[in-house]
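hiii so my PI (J.) wants the whole complex modelled not just the main chain, which honestly fair. so below is everything: two entries, each one labled with what it is. i double checked the lines twice but i was tired so who knows lol
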Amino acid sequence: MWRSTAWTGWALVVGLCVLWQLSVVLGWVQSENWPPLSAVLAKIWEGFVSGEWLSVFGPSIVRMLSGYALGCALGVMLGMLVANSRWAKRLLGTSIALLRPLPVPAIIPPLILLLGVDDALKITVIAFGVFFPVFMSAYAGVLAVDPVHKQVLRTFRIPGWIALFKVKLPTALPYIFSGMRISLSLALVLTVIAEMTAGNDGVGYYIVSMQYAMRAADMYAAVILLSLLGYVLNRLFVVLESRWLRWSRQLEERK
Amino acid sequence: MNAVNTSASQTILSLQSLSMRYGNGQDAVQAVGDVTLDVREGEFLTIVGPSGCGKSTVLQMIAGLMQGTSGQVTLRGRPVQAPPEGLVYLFQQYSRSLFPWMNVRDNVMFGMGGQPGVDRRQAMQSCEEYLTLVGLEGMGDRFPWQLSGGMQQRVAIARALAASPQVLLLDEPFSAVDALTRAVLHDLVLDVWQKRGLTVVLVTHDVDEAVYLSDRIALLGPRPSRVAHVYDNPLPRPRDPVATRACPEFSRLRGELLAHLLGRQP
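here's the output for the full assembly
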């Protein structure tokens, strides 16, 4: 399905790009803030040659992946803990239910007072946002253990920790992956928001600076690269996911 | 070979006035009425009954997977309150009971999971032995979804054996496979039962199967069930899928059981 529509999908993208270029060249839109696509592409190329993009995107990617890893790890661990232990659910359930609806950008200003404007703040913000989808999916995944499997665990007298790693975690894995996939795009969004709000480097900071400096071509260049980065990360994730969950896909096909 | 496994006639499992009631008050359903039965060490006992008579419930209570409303089960004199050591329950839904993310070897080794201090290399070796015993030698690297229903049931049997049980509880394990596979699995289970000196309690509604496999057959009446009759099976061992069924005793016992189940006077 994806393969057959890919060609037409890309054709539309190319068409819109051509429209953009024509809109400037033919004078349909006349604005300093609307540069021709060719100027933007030239800027992208220059940035790669000079190494500017590395210094702009480098810190953002490091931050994003750190926050993502931290949020995912905490989400998986706490999600499984809360699903496994009535005691943990009683203790943590209310706090998590109260924190979850918070729009993440709202916690940035108070966190600046606590953590400053550097990486500690940004990684915390990203991890905070990433945590909830992963937590919810890990929780749901553990609860999805087949009742027959539960009986198997009982009749073979399998100790709880072995059951956790050999049965509950594998059952939860497809759920966890879908949560992590949602969180991946969320991590990119939060990285840019955090950098726009506080700090002095990274792609979010760069875009805002270029806007203030009225350098539209540089701004669009960064936005286009950001979209490509998100796209590549998502494709990478899908490839990894399908490798790790071969059994799950096979099972789906059987059904 | 002896007609009946007489070498060990000691009671290993004892069911005393087992009953099971679901729900409360007016809506309560008495699934199991009053089941009293002794299982002898080393025997192959089959519980037969009409569908809905609660025979699977009885088996789950023996397994310690379910607690009865009253009465008790004892294994070697000890009351069963949780799944006891040395007793394994083989599920009817074998394809659901295997773990799809583990290959056949890991599924079988999972049966040893409860035993502390098992050396992995030794475990792999005995795993291969169990696979050979159920006719799946060299299939360790396959995944459950790559196997047929009959082969999946063999994996489930190998996994149950890997727990080195003395008692094996079989809950209609052959009901979902085709007739030919069923006949092959019957002989496999008999073979394993004799080689490993197991005590087997089988639950089924298939009279032919009960007569072919068992030493004794306990017939449960309709709900609320109680043991209506226990039949001694005089058919000689080893059983043979063709010769055993040709015995006059086979048809006589089969007829008696069927008549009883259908509610006719024999």
